[in-house]
Design brief:
It comes from Enterococcus saigonensis. The protein is α/β, with parallel strands linked by helices. The protein is built from 13 helices and 25 strands. The longest helix is centred in the C-terminal third of the chain and has 22 residues.
């Protein structure tokens, strides 16, 4: 089941085991159970510290990752392959005794949980956002005996997915009640636990430069600022930004091909090599400039700095039509790689004829029964090479000059309605899912009532050095009026803003 390259890599990781681990597997006579048995036998053959026991469990197939004398609370229901293979390796190492690398604050919060918590996370193996949630909840189970976590692979347990009406991944249930949906870090998930004591935010002394945002622009700005030897902070709700939702990246010069999550993990490691105070899991709500720049936080605290670089990025733009909010995660989706497998064999629609929309349609066509592409303009906007690839796919229908007006259903998406812009006539299409890919919206709503100038697209207006109209406040990346929204351009603008801010500090004496 595992190729030679994977086996060699796994062997290297297994040399890091600190104690014995037993896989307690609940298996049947079905094909999925046979695959899991084969997988576990191949893995246990690689180390004398690994053993396999077959037991009776609530699901088949599933296996727990335990110590011989202790149940860790970590269970994998379905094969942890694809993006979840890393989750499996980390779980094995941590159960063996290796301490997870997390902040002291998060560690204390996990230890303080006294209520019994059973998390269940429904995932797809193509979802690049799911491992963050799976790994975070596994860490919680490893560190606290009151916590259990089961990863459930949706393709293996389709009936359970249908019964729970799950149309987006990762979806997490806590003690049988839906707890969260979508990407989340350990810090963010800990904030949502109702029984958990919240950590107290530690006030910082004023920074020389504070970067707000943890995407490519923010990371670049932080590195360039820290290299100047000045006190640098980086504030982000979640490090990685929009890039975490990008499956394949093929235009980073010097890196022919990578994935969004892998790329930003490497970027974070680079940032951590410098003296940068990473403040994660916190959200900025307002900003003002007096002698210092003050950034107010959602938790009621504030951070001050001599200069601030805004690098808050952007998010997928909404259509703003009836049904979009009502059916979010119930058929309305924005990530075909994550949620596409949940619509296998069904009809879906993609709204948007740009590169993102056409790439989504091409991917979904290999999974779904039929894909409808609706484009507002009289022609597709995607690159020619993508349009040519799309034209050769039989189960895709392109509808041009189509204004999507509503999404309807009962407890999930059942259809969408669009208006033919040439005639005004309305048409409906029966679909199980609607993927909305119509471009990006800058994350600047929190700046709308501040003196910082925004253009009509709500982008921060910047000068050549990244300066805004407010002295001491700079901006970079996709939240600005930069004409092109690309990772490499965002990184360049982050460096520019950091150099501009440093020059500003010098001139201030």
């Amino acid at each position: 089941m595992l190729d030679n390259n994977t086996i060699q890599q796994l062997k290297q990781y297994l040399t890091m085991l600190e104690g014995p681990v037993v896989f307690r597997a609940s298996l049947g006579t079905d094909e999925n159970s046979d695959k899991m048995r084969e997988f576990l036998l191949e893995v246990t053959a690689l180390s004398h510290l690994l053993t396999l026991e077959e037991v009776t469990g609530t699901r088949k197939p599933q296996f727990a990752v335990d110590r011989p004398d202790y149940a860790s609370g970590i269970i994998f229901a379905g094969l942890p392959l694809g993006h979840e293979f890393a989750s499996f390796i980390l779980a094995v190492l941590q159960v063996s005794g290796r301490v997870p690398k997390i902040s002291e604050e998060d560690y204390k919060q996990i230890e303080a949980i006294n209520d019994p918590l059973h998390f269940e996370t429904f995932i797809s193996l193509t979802c690049q956002n799911c491992p963050d949630v799976v790994q975070a909840l596994n860490i919680m189970a490893v560190l606290n005996p009151n916590i259990r976590h089961t990863m459930i692979e949706g393709g293996t347990f389709k009936e359970e997915v249908e019964a729970k009406n799950i149309l987006a991944v990762p979806t997490v249930f806590l003690n049988g009640v839906e707890f969260s949906s979508g990407r989340g870090t350990l810090t963010q998930l800990l904030k949502k636990i109702p029984t958990n004591e919240k950590k107290e935010f530690k006030n910082r002394d004023p920074f020389d430069i504070l970067v707000v945002g943890g995407g490519p622009a923010g990371a670049s700005a932080a590195i360039y600022a820290a290299r100047k030897g000045i006190k640098t902070g980086l504030l982000a709700n979640e490090f990685g930004g929009q890039v975490l939702e990008t499956l394949s990246i093929e235009n980073i010069i010097g890196t022919p091909k990578t994935q969004g999550t892998k790329f930003m993990a490497e970027v974070k490691q680079h940032v951590e090599e410098y003296d940068v105070d990473l403040i994660s899991g916190e959200v900025a709500t307002s900003i003002q400039k007096d002698d210092l720049v003050t950034v107010n936080l959602e938790n009621g605290a504030n951070i001050q700095s001599k200069a601030v670089i805004l690098a808050t990025g952007a998010h997928w733009k909404n259509l703003g039509i009836p049904g979009e909010d009502e059916f979010k995660n119930k058929g309305v989706a924005y990530c075909p790689h994550c949620d596409g497998p949940l619509f296998a064999g069904k009809d879906v629609a993609v709204i948007g004829g740009g590169n993102s929309g056409i790439e989504a349609a091409i991917d979904l066509a290999g999974i779904c029964r039929h894909v409808y592409v609706l484009e507002f303009l009289p022609e597709l906007k995607a690159d020619k090479i993508l349009q040519e690839r799309l034209a050769g796919i039989e189960n895709v229908t392109v509808i041009l000059n189509a204004e999507t007006t509503s999404i309807t259903g009962t407890d999930r998406v059942e259809s969408l309605t669009y208006r033919k812009r040439e005639t005004g006539e309305k048409e409906s299409i029966s679909v199980a899912g609607t993927f909305i890919l119509i471009g990006l919206q800058p994350n600047t709503k929190w700046l709308e009532n501040t003196p910082i100038a925004l253009n009509n697209r709500k982008e921060v207006i910047t000068a050549a050095d990244g300066a805004t109209n407010v002295a001491g406040i700079f901006a970079a990346g996709d939240c600005t009026d930069s004409r092109y929204k690309q990772i490499i351009i965002a990184m360049g603008s982050g460096a520019t803003a950091a150099l501009g801010a440093f020059d500003y500090l010098i001139r201030q004496g």
